[in-house]
Amino acid sequence: MKIKNIIIIILLTFISCGGDILVEENDDSGTGSGSKIYIVGGLSSISIGSVVPGIDIYYPDTDSWEYSITGIPVPVSFAGVTEYDGKIYIIGGFNNLGTVVNIVQIYDIATNSWTAGTPMSESRANHSAVALNGKIYITRGTTANASIAWTVGSLTNTLIYNIADNSWSPNATGVADLAYSNKSVAVFDNVIYYTGGKSLTSTLQAAHDGIIISNNTTTNSITEWNLTNGVTTTATVRVGHSALFASIDSITYHFVIGGFSALTNTGCYVFNIATGSAPVSPAASVFQYLRYPFANTTSNNWSNVNTGVSLSGTGFGSAVASGNKIYYFGGASSEISGGSQLVYSYDLKDFPNGNWITKTNMPTPRFGHTAIVLE
Description:
This protein has 375 residues and is mostly beta strands. The chain has a single domain (36-374), classed as Neuraminidase. Helices cover 0% and strands 33% of the residues. The chain has no helices and 26 strands. The strands form 7 sheets. It has a 4-stranded antiparallel β-sheet, with no helix packed on it. Strands 4-5-6-7 form a 4-stranded antiparallel β-sheet, with no helix packed on it. Strands 8-9-10-11 form a 4-stranded antiparallel β-sheet, with no helix packed on it. β2 and β3 form a beta hairpin.
């Protein structure tokens, strides 16, 4: 099976973070890419104060780790994290007190140094950050502290960070993506596609829509199948899942992995025991795809990847791709489980079958974090 023309733009993710993948046309080995995967932010336990300060690096070629290469000046969880031109941008999130912040923390990989960017006009957590064409797009999220009941607050549109002059602006024409938090976002062909999310205190969504960057509109007219339109009973509303695009044999697919299909928690921090109980229906084994171009026809529904081994604890983990493999890091299975150290890989050459393979554990358990790939 030939895997080609897949471009890496790794996102949040947790929030996901997913993105397009680049696999060289004749590279069937899955090794020797020289890539590094940076693991940024998140929590190690169920406590909102257990923010992980260090950034770890995973080396896919050797299945090995470099522990805590640097410390985030203000450690955060459920932040928007993305990479552009050799710098990692960590925007917003919850600090170790559960306070939602508006800060921009920039890590220069080449110089191993940190700088502060211009803060957002409002504090946000549970949002997505997407770097594209010299700008970073911040989509929705929540504005209240972790212990406060969920609300999207005053969020009405996408914020745009201009990297060149370190400035912020609202979406130029006020195009508003759906008012959801904890969506999973992936980019393909200059469109920011998002799936799922949380729209009310404990209401999850199955939305599948996109923001077209070139003309500042949404893809509503395309009517992509949402997450409940599937050929299997596992098609469901979703939150805390990961998403990415991959092209296999010249066909592009949108993949979604894991998440939760129900919540009773009503807080801005989804595992806040004071405001609700556990996510009651983990979708830990769900690994699905939808063929591009999207069309709401019965021949192009969400379908399952037929993996023989299910993932464990895949809520608010982070999935990315390196070489010809998808990697999944960490996550949580319930409000009492805390973060997982587990790492899995899936070989795209085996699509739509194959197995998840366990890899070397992360140095620190994490969920609510983001994985970033640098080739």
